Amino acid sequence: MTTAALTGDYTLDIARTRIGFVARHTIGPKVRGRFEEFEGSAHLDGDDPSKSNVELTIQAGSIQTRNPQRDEMLRGRFLNLAAHTTITFVSTAARQTGATAFEVTGDLTIRGVTRPVTVALERIGAEHDPQGGVRVRFTGGTTINRKDWGVASIAAAGLVGKKVVLEFDVAAVRRTPPPPRPPT
């Protein structure tokens, strides 16, 4: 499917999307986790990718590392869930860097702190689904410094490396376009 044929408005396919992270632990192996609750939308412009945009809202309390004690610490000390229930990303620019490669720059808000980040994405699939809709899949990520979002003054933070890799395996479904208007 050509990039131009993908133009349209999309919503995340929650069942087929994974938003995860990897952080180095100073006294053990890397800590891997994911977020279970999120929603997102995008407008893809296949003719001019710079006109594309993305919005993502993650429920911070849905963080999972398969260790309940660590998850509670992350929700409280790291993410300050009592004051900041969501993590958001709103794109400010997009550009195509290769045949199926893109960079999306935007504002990432964690713990009430908003900073720009650039996410590298690779389109790994695009097809018609059995219902006749269009599905597109991307994979990619970015590395952030947790201290840039205020996760620095926490005593337990000394056990976690500064760099956190954000990972995205995204599936999105194009919304059905409205029917054409009859001529007047």
UniProtKB/TrEMBL annotation:
Pfam family, one: YceI
Species whose genome carries this gene: Microbispora hainanensis
Residue span(s) of domain Lipid/polyisoprenoid-binding YceI-like: 9-173
Protein name: YceI family protein
PANTHER family: PROTEIN YCEI
Annotated family: Belongs to the UPF0312 family.
